[in-house]
Amino acid sequence: MLWDAALRLGPGARVVEIGSHQGRSTTVLGIAARSVGATVVAVDPFVEGKLFGGTPTRQRFEKNVAAAGLSDVVELEAEYSTRLRRRWDKRIDLLYIDGKHDYWTYTDDMRWSAFLVPNGEILVHDAFSSIGVTLGVIAKVLCGNRYVYVDRAGSLARFRLAQPSWADRRRVLAEMPWFLRNVGIKVLLRLRLRSVARMFGHDSPYDPY
User: Looking at the structure, do residues 130 and 46 belong to the same domain, yes or no?
Assistant: First the structure.
């Protein structure tokens, strides 16, 4: 889905990726963007500590981008997305959100869509899987008037900047059983009830998505 979305862009287009970590998705976006003459802005603060990795993670990111030959395609903004947005003044053609997954950060990251071209696409990781992100989707997409839910690949959802119809809102509601299943499995795994999770088709010690 990342690859296809970038290939739909044209020369001079700009992709903004919020949350890059070690650069796997950045590389996918970057190679596709290069083939159509677009560029990628990767936004990640590389917070220090065990959870995020800090400087070592940034070094891996830079190494992976360079190894893919994308140093002239990918621009790194080592900053919190919520802070960078306040001084941003450039057009965005594709927005990919994979930052912090709490409700407040996700909904703030959706405000980057103010710079998105009309009918521009927004890709969101862990939609209908993360509680914080899904609550944000309910608040800003289901109950809002700016975004249309298009489809998803696994937990990567695609939205479009447009006025939603009731049919668009019903498609969001249709994903709620899948979301509840994912949350339920996560709870079962934390309770060490993997055998019960297996009854719901999840035979893995890891969270779904």
Answer: yes
CATH number where 31 lies: 3.40.50.150
Do 191 and 91 lie in a common domain?
no
Regions of the chain short of the pLDDT cut 50: none
Q: How far is CA 14 from CA 17, 34, 121, 134, in A?
A: 10, 11, 12, 26
The domain containing residue 203 runs over which residues?
177-209
- Whole-angstrom Cα distance, residue 157 to residue 151? 6
**pTM exceeds 0.70 for this model:** yes
Q: Which of 123, 134, 127, 112 is nearest to 2 (CA)?
A: 123
From CA 27, how far away is CA 61, in angstroms rounded? 10
Please give the tally of structural domains in the chain. Answer: 2
